[in-house]
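Pasting as-is:
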Amino acid sequence: MPDGYRLPRTAIPRRYELRMTPDFAGRRFSGHVRVELDVVESVSELVCHAAALQISRARLLGPAGPVDLEIRLDPEREQARLRMPAPVAPAQYTLEADFAGAFDPLLRGFFLSAGIASTQFQSTDARRAFPCWDEPDLKAVFSVTLDVPPGCMGVANGPEVAAQALPDGWRRVTFADTPPMSTYLRAFVIGPLEATAPVDVDGVPLRVVHVPGKAHLAQYALEVGAHALRFFARWTGVPYPAQKLDLIGVPERGGAMENLGAAIFVESALLTEPGADGARRVAEVISHEIAHMWFGDLVTMRWWDGLWINEAFATFITVHCMESFRPDWRPWPAFAVQRDRAMFVDALPSTRPVESPVARPDEAEAMYDLLTYQKGAALLRMLEAAMGAEAFRAGVRRFLHTHAYGNADGDDLWAAIGGPAPEIMPGWIHQGGHPLLEDGAQRPFTLLPGPSSARWDVPDAGSEGYYRVRRHGPWTELGPAARFRAAADTWACVLAGIAPLEAFLDLCPMLAASDDPNLLTVLEDAITTMDHAGGGDALQAWTRGVLRPVVARVGWEAQEFRDAITLLGNVGEDPDVVARGRQFPSVAAAHGGAGDVLAEYRRAADPQTELRHLEALGACRDPELAERLLTMCLGDIKRQHAGALLSRLLANRHVGLLAWDFLRAHWDALGPRFFGKGFWRTLGGAGWLGEEADLRGFLAAQDLGGMRRLADQIVEAQAVRVAFARREGHRLAGLPQRTASSSSSST
């Protein structure tokens, strides 16, 4: 790994005073920062972070008076070296600097979108907004002042404490000091916004900040946010660690961010009606970001190799929160589906340990994947099941109390939790992969051939364990969670080539007869895989035979079964589903109605409807319209939507190669727009392409930096599906035509 990306620990920041002034017309900003520092050894320069900034003046105030500093920028390492005329002795100093920069075009740092200036600093982009010590363990107090144009509102981590009138209708707004926090959690938003009246949640003012005209979509977020704040305070035994909480909706940005006291969301993850499509996902995202106020903001990982401590915990505890909020959603069975998706990636040769080395900024960006979030959360769930819920929670409370407003690593976590954790969990966190258990023995489970000698200390966690089980026994004796585990493990063994396709086909009628929509996700993945393998007319008829009884039983309005109904229309070519295309936009897009779906996307009245129709366009089969949609991904579609659409078009059996050719031809233009935290979200659909698409050769020739491992995983996902097609494709023409009334007695 290259040296020099970490800052020396010769100066430690304690408090920032930051003033920011936007220039919307010029798409620029300027600012002034004062940083109170402890210089801990004699130095002749200060080294801090600065990326794409101009620093016009810097001086150091100390015991001997002010000293002007020579400014040297290091763009490669994203650092500023501030040299002194002579070395200074250890003492307390104040650094002052004036700086300026352009709003970032890639929705990172301080950026402008839809007329709103907002921030996205995780992982290493606070340095794009102001000079700072931009590493997670260098926590400091922040005082922020924003110069706000006429007609605009300013929001930051702390509550507003003062406002001063400026010329031409501007205002200078000052916000309260924050608790000690990492730079990546700093936030400020300036734009034409309005806020709901605050809701008092046990002394914490909670608001939703949104663009004008969308107040009616904010009430659900207030309900979810209030529940989450109360739940996490009660579960952790630790009061909410900030003075207020604003949930801020921005029309165009990537995902959501857990800034302490000022969480920022893309609108589609925040604003919705309670019963709308996607309301459940909105509740999960809001709760996840609020969970971070404890897991990540109050206690933060020491360095980015420990990102899983933040994200795995927030993912895990959010499921508990959802179970409290809406138990009818059955969130833990739904999480098992996410766990299974992580296990697919984790069974590839290019998997990594949950905790992996990080040196460069782009390597930190590559950590936002299924292994950090879902595998990490699944390991915590396994440990909780093995220890018991109360003993586990008591350990987590010790962890939070011990390291509040500080930083911690995995060893700190296991020591606080106690019990078996310090002995067994490092082996799960520090090596990739997971075992296959069969007849009392274990071996590494892999979807592609390759040597592996890894072994794991397997706790008795029942169906919550993070491992595959090849089981021989009666299916009917299993409970719901164990049924999902048996079905998912059987299908995984088929994909790996260690079980025959018939072993899974025998289960399919029973899966379709279940009232658990999570069980159907395994069937849906199998049908999609067989469709890409060339199932043809036989697969269409088989799909109709298996899924028609599902629709007859649950009805057309069952949102939890929408994906199964869509598959019945798009793989089974069921005429009844096709005739109801307007009710199922993906079916409409696949059967000649993509133009109508595009029109619905453009005139959508709320973010959820917009997103639903945009994602449905990925099912388009018309090459001419697909070309048009691909061209729109270059700039006419919101960035956060375009990556998802591109991925769906890549995964579309009918136009996937067309999309792949487009991606290759426009690689230089698309790469900067989508390849950061969104790398897998954008390129993951390529893992469904057939062997005629040379993913390995093309991606090997690209400079992917820290994203190389993610690219390897996509190539290997393609290889798994190609191997399945070669192994099983010729047998799909003879699929047995069964119905859900058929039964099976074993797995």
